[in-house]
Amino acid sequence: MSFTFPEYVHNKNVGFILRDFQQDFSRINPCRVYVDFQQTKSFNDFGVLVLTEIKKKTHQANGKLVLRNLSQEVQDILDLVQFSTLPEEVSDLSQKRLPKITIRTGEAFFKCLYDMKKMIFFVGEVFFASLVLIKNPRKLRYNDVIYYMQRVGVDALPIVALISLLLGLIMAFMSSAQLEQFGANIYVASLVSLAMIKELGPIMTCILVSGRSGSAFASEIGSMKISEEVDALTTMGFDTTIFLVMPKIVAAVIVVPLLVVFSDIFAIAGGLIIGVSMLDLTIHSYIHQTMTSLTILDFGLGLLKSMFFALIIAWIGAFRGFQTEGGAQEVGQATTSAVVSSIFLIIVVDSLIAVMLRYWN
Question: Distance between CA 321 and CA 217 in Å, rounded?
């Protein structure tokens, strides 16, 4: 069978060329296919695609492909894509099957183990970097710390305040429907204040910080990683953990507890609005009940949790950023992974703290 390659191949005629070849090939079913390039005036990547399909069909029929009248341009392009070494049999995408569930489960398990190993190594790097900064605080980039404090804390204050205010409104409104039946409207203040200060305040604030700042940390370091800026810093003798990671961690640990305080205040203000407008409570009685229900230990526990959560957010964000390899798509995956991982660890740590406090008491 002889096939004359067309003068020009572009995206609009690739389908027609392959269709005509398939029809002739199915009718003749030859043992040898000759492709003549005598009329070819331009050869590009679409031409390579057509030629690759011809090679695949010929091999499937146990035939042999012979190229004739190759110009220097065509030969150079085929050499560039290493056409002679391309696999002759290419499996169709429609015939691809996913691995068995046991294989996928095993791969996911070993991937998690490898990920945990990397995490442990990174924890060690951050720990030793912290010791270095304790010994020599001048190595910390204070300008960067202030910059990240603004990004993590000041810039996040409006959204944290709004979410906390609405959360306080919702909690007070929903609980009042039940407590009002027993004439216990005053205990709405206790419910809102205790729930926010001990649990929801730190968790909700840190989830918002994780979505805003944790993802930003991962994308920033990930972009530097794929553009080889991290390698350049290492070549110049900089400790990338101290240079890139520690300012983020220090800034997050400082400002996130302050954000939690503002979150608690706005949530209590949301409950106050419901208490005064719907439950016939006075401002004085609501605030007095709130202060009576709370202790210094409750405030301290909320702030301590927020510090742990802030450490997790900055650490995971930097860790996922350093794991980034490849192109821009990997940066997006690292950003998503940083947010999901940090939120998961926040919930796990909060659960462990709750269990320990339960048995402590």
Answer: 7
CATH architecture of the domain 2-95 equals 2-Layer Sandwich (3.30)
Taking a C-beta distance cutoff of 8 angstroms, is the pair 330, 229 a contact? Answer: no
Q: What is the dihedral of CA 325, 328, 334, 335, to 10 degrees?
A: 160
Choose among 237, 223, 252: nearest CA to 346. 252
Rounded CA separation 138/62 (Å):
72
Given pLDDT bands bounded at 50, 70 and 90, which one contains residue 91? very low
Average confidence score pLDDT of the chain: 85
Tens digits of residue pLDDT in 290-323: 999 888 988 999 999 999 999 999 999 999 999 8
DSSP 43-93: --HHHHHHHHHHHHHHHHTT-EEEEES--HHHHHHHHHTTGGGS-S----G
Which residue's structure tokens are 């331009």? 42
Among 356, 261, 347, CA closest to 309: 347
Q: Which residues pair with 4 in a beta bridge?
A: 36
Average pLDDT over residues 111-135: 89
| Radius of gyration of the chain from its Cα atoms, rounded to whole angstroms | 32
Gap between the Cα atoms of 282 and 310, Å rounded: 36
Backbone angles phi, psi at 3, to 5 degrees: -125, 120
Residue 272 has pLDDT above 90, yes or no: yes
Query: Could you tell me the residue ranges of all domains in the chain?
Result: 2-95, 140-360
Distance (Å, rounded) from C-alpha 334 to C-alpha 327?
11
CA separation, residue 119 to residues 272, 317, 318, 336 (Å):
43, 12, 11, 17
Q: Model's pTM, two decimal places? A: 0.69
Per the document, the length of the chain is: 361
For residue range 231-240, what is the model confidence (pLDDT) as tens digits? 898 888 888 9
**Average pLDDT of span 344-351:** 92
Averaged pLDDT for residues 25-41: 74
* Close Cβ partners of 102 (under 8 Å, ≥ 6 residues apart): none
Q: What percent of the chain has pLDDT over 70?
A: 93
Could you list the beta-strand ranges (E) of the chain.
2-4, 32-36, 64-68
